[in-house]
Design goal:
mainly alpha; two-stranded antiparallel ribbon; 2 helices; transmembrane; LapA_dom; LapA; Probable lipopolysaccharide assembly protein A; coiled coil
């Protein structure tokens, strides 16, 4: 829920920046590898900000997914160890051994 509110605040700040920047009519020339284009400054700033935001989310999703995968592997390993410990406790109890 906290992440949703943070994303909402960032989106509102993005819209506010677009509204304030829409009054700026300055043209910016962007050179590509094979061409060039003239764009308004607010459009360039908004697209670069949005691309950076998406790129950061992609990295975050990758790392979160990697951590969740490692956690699930560790939980499976823990369950296996607990199952073997329970079975060894059960075998020792059947044999009449007393645990100290």
């Amino acid at each position: 829920m906290k992440g949703f509110f943070i994303a909402l605040v960032i989106a509102l700040l993005f819209v506010l920046a677009l509204l304030l920047g829409s009054r700026n009519e300055q043209l910016v020339t962007i050179n590509y590898f094979v061409a060039q284009g003239d764009f308004r400054l607010p459009v360039v700033l908004a697209s670069v900000f949005f691309a950076g935001f998406l790129l950061c989310w992609c990295f975050a999703i990758y790392h979160i997914g990697k951590l969740k995968y490692a956690l699930s592997r560790a939980n499976r390993k823990l369950q296996k160890l607990q199952a073997t410990a329970d079975s060894s406790d059960q075998v020792s109890a059947e044999a009449g051994e007393v645990k100290s």
